[in-house]
Model the fold of this input.
Amino acid sequence: MKLLSLAAVAALAATLFLVPFHTPANGRSADEGPLAEAMEGLQGGMRTLGRLVGDPAKHAEAMEPVRAMQGHVLTAFAHPPEAPEGEDAARYALAFRNQLHSVLGELLALEGALFDGDADAAKQRFGNLNGLKKAGHDRFKVD
Done:
């Protein structure tokens, strides 16, 4: 499990240094670009996992969307949304990245539960992801 964590940290570090941060000056709306694509990928992964996590016979199949979602989190990490007017942009971006850190941790824990064949833990982790999704949308989703 430590190897997975080290790999995730290495991928995150590479993403931060190789992918430029989102800026409002890029001419993109909130509905396009790397952040929007990452969020769409996460949403699709959640729909797929919802059909797989409850069935222990499908846990091996569930590994693929979990790993894809981890990649989407790492992409989103480097592209925080524009801060709402009146909010400190740096603090807002930090809060966004902290939220994504929590999501990545749950995805890694879900992957571990699936790997171990622990259906109860997998369902719990999936529920935790749904809670993080709601909290993230409440805080960061642009209308």
User: Anything to note?
Assistant: The domain at 30-140 is CATH 1.20.120.10 (Four Helix Bundle (Hemerythrin (Met), subunit A)).
